[in-house]
Amino acid sequence: MKQKPNNLMLENDPLMDAADCKHSIKALQESEERFRTLFESLPMAVQGHDSEGIIKYWNKACEHIYGYKKDEAIGKNIIDLIIPHENRNSMRKVLKQKAETEKMPAPEELLLMRKDGSSVPIFSTHSFVKLEDKEPEFYSFDVDITIQNELQSQLRQALKLESIGTLTGGVAHDFNNLLFMILGNIEIAIIDIPEGNPVLSNLKEVKSAGQRAVRIVKQLLNYSRKTDQELIPIGIVSNVNEILDFLRSTIPNTVEIRKKLPDFDVPILGDPIQINQFMMNLCINAAQAMEETGILEIDMKNVTLTDEDVSNYANLSTGNHIKITVSDSGPGISDDICQRIFDPYFTTKGSGEGSGMGLTIVNSIVENHNGGISVESEYGNGTCFTILFPIIDGTPEEIINTKIEIPHGTEKILFVDDEEPIVDMIGQILIKLGYKIETKLDPLEALDLFKRKPYSFDLVLTDMTMSHMTGVELSQKVKEIRHDIPVIICTGYNKLIDEDQVRQLDIDGYLMKPVSQLEMARTIRKVLDEGKL
Asked: Which residues of 277-297 are buried (b: 16+ CB within 10 A; e: fewer)?
């Protein structure tokens, strides 16, 4: 009689158990290989260690980030390997706490150490593994966040630069109004004081300083908006020579100034105020670097640049250039600082000693003059800045100290501004120029006056920013009453209105505060005689 198979016997068959065991071992090996390959190929560094900190696992990304090969890391203590010296004691306490509580820290940013001793910023997440009858293991998943930190830094710098534009724009109107009142009253006083009076030369000096302040405000606005500079033909040699004469009284006598300048002047397109600023900045920086004693050398010479010469500069073209070198015998600058020296807000000075904007503005000035700037330095052997400006044909514009004829007139002008000191000052200037005027502090009152007698006025001169109504709105309303009345708008901040907007808004002209008596007289005369600017 045939016996039925015994299922129980089959289940206990040693051959079947061996096959199952072999299959399980193979599956386990495949699983281990799969996860090992996965962890080895991860872009993040995965490192594992026991409760004593002895490294048990170290993937390829760890080798890339920290610089240690796997055989160099396995068996070493994680604290001695990648934790900076100053943090090792505190990290040992953290490791002990992890081992005792088996509680992992939250994801965190750490500054760890590479094999070469350099620092690397890391974003690290942590995991705990406890297998039966095995010592616990602690794993960290580390990501190098160097690039992210640099991008964040660049974003912060960009936001700071944007804040400069907002800040300078916000204060420009009020500050220009103050300068307008100062310069306007000085011009009135200069007209009334006879030649030979000793006060006259003092007032002219104050006026000159005020005009330089105007250019500096304008430069800040231009820098924050990256607009084109107003460049005129100037003699760069004479300008630099004057700056160095002034510097002698500014730089300590223990610093020797040596200059080697051409005997003839060289014309470039430039802004004298900005040339003054960048040269002063470079020379004072050099003197500060030398601290107590040293040699400051300024050399200028004509050079002809080739394609190869200009290849490393963004703005330079081939041709004739003036080459200015400013070198010092100071301690020099390291390579890593040289690479960042023109970055906004980068400074090696202590807190409160420097804004980090000086060399950034120097670089901006040179670029806006279609020039190029570079720096060479060897740590311990001084620093040399090289500046190149294109030379133009012709001769530098000369300042002629002769009396300029200011145009006068007899027409009647309605002048509107909501600041009484400005109204009084402009009133005096216009009367001295021969005009008949009526003034108003409120644009609504000015509009009401114009409605009652629109043909009593030959011109409306109005401020841009006023309470109740802007200058543009007032212009539109008076032209609705009388379309042929010429209007000039005066503003302290040209973001509010520019020449293109003037044309679009049917405004006949505009003046940027602070405006000189000559500029105002010429603009009024041009609008009255020729129509729109």
From this structure: bbbbbbbebbbbbbeeebebb
